[in-house]
Amino acid sequence: MSSFAGRMKEYPNMSLDRFDRENLHARAYFLSHCHKDHMKGLKGPLLKRKLKFSLTVKLYCSFVTKELLLSNPKYAFWEDHIVALELESPTLITLIDEASGEREELVVTLLPAGHCPGSVMFLVEGAQGAVLYTGDFRLAKGDASRIELLHSGSRVKDIKSVYLDSTFYDPRFYQIPSRETCLHAIQDLVQDWISRSVRHTVWLNCKAAYGYEYLFTNLANEFHTQIHVNNLDMFKKMPEILSHVTTDRATQIHACRHPKGEDFLATRLPCGGSSTPLNIISIKPSTMWFGERTQRTKVIVRTGASSYRACFSFHSSYSEIKDFLSYLQPINIYPSVVPIGRTHADVTELLKSMCRDVSSSAVVYRPLGTLKRTRPEQQTHDVDRADWLFEGADLAPVRKRVMMQEATPTTLTNPPDDPLPFTPLVTGDYMDCTESNDDEEGEEGERGGEERDLEEGERGGEERDLEEGERGDLEEGERGGEERDLEEGERGGEERDLEEGERGGEERDEGSVSNSGPPPRWEEFFTTEILTDSQTSQPNSCSHTSPSHSPLTGSQTPELFVDDFVTLPSPSIPLSAGRGPSQADSMLIQSEDRCQGDALTNLEAWGEECGNHTNQSEPTESQMSSDFDIPSTPDSDRPGPDELSDLYRRLAAGEEVVTRTGSQSL
DNA sequence: GCGATCAGGT
DNA sequence: CACACCTGATCGC
Fold first, then answer.
1. What DSSP letter does each residue of A568-630 carry, written as one string?
2. Fewer CB atoms inside 10 Å of the end CB: C or N, chain A?
3. Contact at 8 Å (CB) between A55 and A101?
4. CA distance A549 to A529
5. Which nucleotides of B are covered by protein (CB under 7 A)?
6. Count of CB atoms within 10 A of residue A615's CB?
7. Local confidence band at A525 (pLDDT 50, 70, 90 cut-offs)
8. Distance CA A119, CA A36 (A)
9. Nucleic strand C near CB of residue A454 (< 7 Å)
């Protein structure tokens, strides 16, 4: 659970994912995703009241998050204060202190976080340097190198601080099977079961939270069926999800939940199911992990006669986090979660090793306050990375950012005894139990058993006996296939893991969201149209089939702006259309490579774009192009160039410049 | 009555 | 050992 207090040292005037206490005074709010533990205070009366009296306070988030948030009536009062931003599209945001008029400009970029629909990380660039707030994230090894806007030309941006989702930053959670692996394993299990007869039904025992949607959509695709869920409202603008879920109970795959959370019965679904008896298995998504030296085993574990746990994680594993950090090499890392059993000091200490060694850079002259670093050629966690360069100095074409490290999967953090070629293992190292084997602490393999017992009360003890090997003999002929599933970790699973280690990245580049599943790109699920349950056959949206989207920068499409422009924020201006490389930093940094976009040219581009749409307050091109020769307002001071361009930005954003300057001149 | 907090459960 | 969430009890306003 996030214990992040809401503010970053560098930019204390913005609040992220916390909306209570001190955060009530923030000048702008940011929501990384729509999970309750990141929304504390968001519906509080104090904040509500503040909004009433404020013209400038906004909540920034992704389009999908906005949609999910507003689908809950408790947050409806945010409607006029939410500014949805496109992914990977640097946006200038001006924080204004309404009392003093003091202003601060930031360039904020939303980066996909892979945690749940709409989840993003916030890259904030301003006077205090570039900082990255990760929110909650699950990124696979190598993903950081694929995020364009973490780079400046061919180099990794100089990230001062990372505010990190450290949920699994603990060697015990060294490895978590990849999304693809887990998905395939679940598919196999589902396949095996529902193919037996139409009465054979699978119940996905999911928590009440966003994040399982990609599981639903993939299963639905694979089996040409829809998944039964309780409610569809939140997905009404997300055809890619909506088309795969249903409130019609007549389907073989369910993810419905009963408010009273009754125990799972192998003959009855939470929704009541059909009038005739069904053969149901439950699959409970759970995080499974494997220690550094643990050989990986099962991705699916049978926990009872009709119940299974399947590996599923919303968060990056220890090694994934390390990969991420060693790529970015921030100067500071602040954990936002302290895994229990650890102290904040533990985690911070552990994280120190991932921080850039500043001693080497401290002596370097940094005329522009930013320094770029070439990306490490090879990911080793050692120190030989003092290879920073001055801005604009060397343009070594290191730009092939992807796929290099995939060939050498885990070398990152566990040097010599990398357990890479996984071999089947015998111990009960499955999920939810630690099976840690990080060097110092002993195994505690035994624990596995008991927690397994706990968890499903329904079935009494037998699962205990199922444990590992002997499952086979365990009952019923009907099972036949199951142990196969169980074993699955050893065979299918692994190979898959391996390959995915090797080529993980590329498949994402194909932009397909289907079965061989790269991390979902939820924003591509989004449309402005409101669809209904039955409109399943309308892939009208911005799906992966759209050729114009690079999979990495999958944009939410211009059409969004038709509807949303009206509510588009005053103080924010998209600085780029989301395609070029980081233009943001060209603003802050006079950067070498293709810095075609400075704030103003970008502004123009933006002006053109929205000039096509009807909108009262948006600037027209002619407004835009009149740039620096407007007469000054009668009794105002003649603004300097900076102020002026600033003014223009605000004009462009449709702000009420008069009022604002009034208050500002205090 | 509402919110915030905690305990307990899934 | 998780996670995200819900419920219900308690306390304070």
1. --SSEEE-S-S-SS--HHHHHS--STT----HHHHHHHHHHHHHTS--SSSPPHHHHHTGGGP
2. C
3. no
4. 19
5. 2-5, 10
6. 16
7. low
8. 13
9. no
Mean per-residue pLDDT over chain A, rounded: 68
Q: How many whole angstroms separate alpha carbon A18 and alpha carbon A42? A: 7
Answer whether any strand C atom is within 7 A of the Cβ of A438.
no
Nucleotide nearest to A1 (CA to C1'): C3
Long-range contacts of A414-420 (CB under 8 A, 24+ apart): A414/A174, A414/A292, A414/A319, A417/A293, A419/A292, A419/A293, A419/A294, A419/A295, A419/A296, A420/A498
Which residues of chain A (11-30) touch nucleic strand C at CB < 7 A?
Answer: none
Confidence grade of residue A275 (pLDDT, cut at 50, 70, 90): confident
Q: How far is the CA of A641 from the C1' of C5 (A)?
A: 52
CB atoms within 10 A of CB A483: 17
Near-strand B residues (CB closer than 7 A): A 20, 41, 43-45, 207, 261, 263, 457
- Which residue in A435, A450, A444, A419 sits closest to A290, CA to CA? A435
A435 sits within 7 Å of strand C by its CB:
yes
The amino acid present at A259, given as its one-letter code, is P
Place of tokens 């299918």: A492
Contact between residue A542 and residue A527 where contact means Cβ atoms under 8 Å apart: yes
Torsion over CA: A369, A375, A381, A384 (sign): negative
Task: State the pLDDT at residue A266.
Answer: 77
Q: How far is the CA of A405 from the C1' of C6 (A)?
A: 43
Give A198-250 pLDDT, tens digit per residue: 999 999 999 999 999 999 999 999 999 999 999 999 999 999 999 999 999 99
CA proximity to A572, closest of A639, A618, A529: A618
CB atoms near residue A13 (< 10 Å): 18
User: Does the C-beta of A499 come within 7 A of strand C?
Assistant: no
* pTM, entire model: 0.66
Report residues 615-644 of A contacting strand C, contact meaning Cβ closer than 7 Å. none
* Torsion of Cα atoms, A289 then A292 then A295 then A296, to 10°: 30
Residue A103: strand pairing partners: A96
**Nucleotides of strand C within 7 Å of the protein's CB atoms:** 1-7
3-state secondary structure of A420: coil
Asked whether residue A211's C-beta has any atom of DNA/RNA strand C within 7 A, the reply is yes
Nucleotide nearest to A208 (CA to C1'): C5
Distance (Å, rounded) from C-alpha A381 to C-alpha A356?
10
Any strand C atom closer than 7 Å to A339 CB: yes
CA distance A249 to A264: 17
Per DSSP, what are the bridge partners of residue A201?
A280
Distance A29 CA to B3 C1' (A): 22
Please give the Cα distance from A632 to A598 (Å, whole number): 24
Which nucleotide is nearest, taking the CA of residue A263 and each C1'?
B10
CB of A172 within 7 Å of some strand C atom: yes
**Closest C1' nucleotide to A39's CA:** C4
Among the listed residues A189, A50, A58, the one whose alpha carbon sits nearest the alpha carbon of residue A653 = A58
What distance in Å separates the CA atoms of residue A618 and residue A661, rounded to the nearest whole number? 19
